[in-house]
Amino acid sequence: MPEPRPKRRANKPPANSPAPTGRKTSAQGKAHRAAALGSRIPKNPSPARATQNAEATGLPPGWATTTLGEICAPSRARAHPQDEPDLPYVGLEHVESQTMRLLGRGKTSDLKSSSVRFSEGDVLYGKMRPYLNKVWLAEFDGLCSAEFLVFPKTEGLNSQLFAYRLNSDDFVKFANRQVSGDRPRVDFDKLASFPYPLAPTAEQDRIIAKLDAVLSRIAAGEAAAQRALKRLDSYRAAVLHAAVTGELTREWRKTHEPKETGAQLLKRLLDERRARWEEAELERFHAAGIIPNDDKWKERYPRPTKVDASKLPELPEGWTWISLDQLTIHLTSGSRDWTRYYGKGSGTFLMAQNIRKNGLDLSFRQAVDPPPGNRDCQRSQVAKGDILVTIVGANTGDVCVVPIELTEHYVCQSVALLRLATPSLSHFVWLYLASDQDGQKQWRMMTYGAGRPHLGFEHLRLTAIPVPPCIEQAAIVREVGQRLAAADRLSVTLNHQLAHARAARQAVMREAFAGRLVPQNPDDAQASEMLPRQSKDSSRAVTRSRSKSQNSPRRRRTEGLVFQP
Q: Do 40-200+527-563 and 302-468 come out as alike in CATH topology?
């Protein structure tokens, strides 16, 4: 028989302690709040030690070395959108990555879940995917997504300078090291240990004045480069549209008369398509050891879908409208059950991210090792001149041409492979399909599925293509290639300028947080003297935000009924 467990004795209060009254004293309340805050707000180092640490790290006199968790804490003031329908809403999508710019705002009335309250001057930091570096200094009061950490204004801490600190490269790298997974999200507890060089309050203001002047000049250069890149995009679109409508070769045609009419060109292309089909059928018969006795097998020739040219724009002399189906002898997409073959082998599975508007991008490689003799290998193997189209997902409609022979490269199920009966047409057809005002416009009208866009094979077959005579095609492809190559060279230069501007921006901020951007003033109050006050301010901000949350009305849903406490 097991021994009886001894009874626990209740902890007796000291003999000189007052009798319990059921009510917490002021000191007990403060202790309880401090315990509730836990490790979120670490104890502040002594001012003398903070100053010594600053001197040891090479910071100027008057500065202090502290951490993010010692000078601030995020607000937790929640609000229900139904209770604040007139406030603006800021989501992660409204803050531009890297630049600290607000791209727009939403309506609180459109929200259903609770949000976080912020005030003008607060700093919003996107904790979801910290590599996106989404930081914004609030310019108005409102509600924001719970995916933001909201840092309230703190006495002795310049909010704008604080926002720049969170936007700096070393903080982004630090935050990225704290997370992992497909949807990384960083918590403040993991950010609290980040070192923060604290300048005297007056010097913080001087740093901001200097930063604003320098960064505004850098931003002006970035904006000019961005505008030039947008103009280049417009130029590319204009070149493609002029090419596939005949405008680009208007003068060329005056000295080069077509050798066949549009009707003759159409017939020749259709004859070539049938001849290629018959060749493929004979090869299949030969591989199977079959010798046809007559030509009845030719009756199985699949008749391609035609286009109604009467409803299409008029074309230059010698051109003709033709459906993509009339041009194609092979249309397929990749296997859906090859995932077990991923990650090994010498084969490459071409994914949607490989299909780019400016060509096939092989920088990303999904290795695949399908078993020998797999029937999908020959069907989905790409060849030089094939046209690849993304038919599923956000990039639906992206199209490119396979420029070279590639061995063991197969399309995935999200990419369609089109092989033309006349391979010499591939580059011109690609130009048309890539043109925003032409092929892309047709596909936008055909795409279905709001959440996950799709293009079906039937849509590809129905796509109408204008085809010029062969000699004019060659002239168009050559001229477009030269113009787009010049645009690409200028684009590389502009992107280098943007990269240089971003590097200059970070270099200036490094100088600012090292105390080398503006001169020090010996009359400024020591930053270490602000540390105890800042710790209290950050604690008060969290306590205030919690009290707001407790005082704000909450809705609880129980078995379909809504109760309003």
A: yes
Q: Taking the C-alpha atoms of 85, 87, 90 and 91 in order, what is their torsion angle to the nearest 10 degrees?
A: -10
Q: Give every CB contact of residue 322 below 8 A, 6+ residues apart in sequence.
A: 266, 269, 307, 464, 465, 467
Nearest to 415 by CA among 347, 353, 340, 334: 334
Which residue, 383, 393, 507, is CA-closest to 450?
A: 393
Question: Cα separation of 467 and 432, whole Å?
Answer: 9
Q: Are 83 and 47 in contact (CB under 8 A)?
A: no
State the sign of the Cα–Cα–Cα–Cα dihedral 243, 246, 252, 258: positive
Q: What class is the 302-468 domain?
A: alpha beta
pTM strictly above 0.90: no
* Backbone φ, ψ for residue 151 (5° rounding): -100, 110
The reply to whether CATH 3.20.20.150 applies to domain 40-200+527-563 is no
Indicate the domain borders of the chain.
Answer: 40-200+527-563, 201-259+471-518, 302-468
The count of other CB atoms within 10 Å of the CB of residue 72 is 27
Q: pLDDT tens-digit profile of 161-215? A: 999 999 999 999 999 999 987 789 999 999 999 999 999 999 999 999 999 999 9
